[in-house]
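Model it.
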Amino acid sequence: MGEETKQIMEFLQDFRNEFVEFKQEMTEFKQEMTEFKQEMLEFKQEMLEFRDEVNTRLDKHEELLHQLADSVKVLDSEVKEIKNNQIKFDRRLTSLAGIVSIQQSDIELAHEKILLNERKIAKLEKQLQA
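Modeled.
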């Protein structure tokens, strides 16, 4: 073989070796990409599970907030009713206090009349005895 043929053969052998090495690197890269893809699928699954868990918790919190709002409405209604009843009671109490005050004045007047009449009776008795 001539020198030129030998150089061509060496070049082809080197090219073949580099091609085989490149092919091997590409196979390894493909394997790494397959593993990466699997990791990404697992990550995606974990994210979906996390999202579902977060949504479930949010739904529970939203339900609790609705229940709390309903409870507050009920309590607010009960407080308004208690206030209204208190206002009615206060008005009735004020009315009764007015009635008691009037009756007390009437009793005082009646007592004064009784005392006056007792004095008149006592005076008349003195006049009769005299």
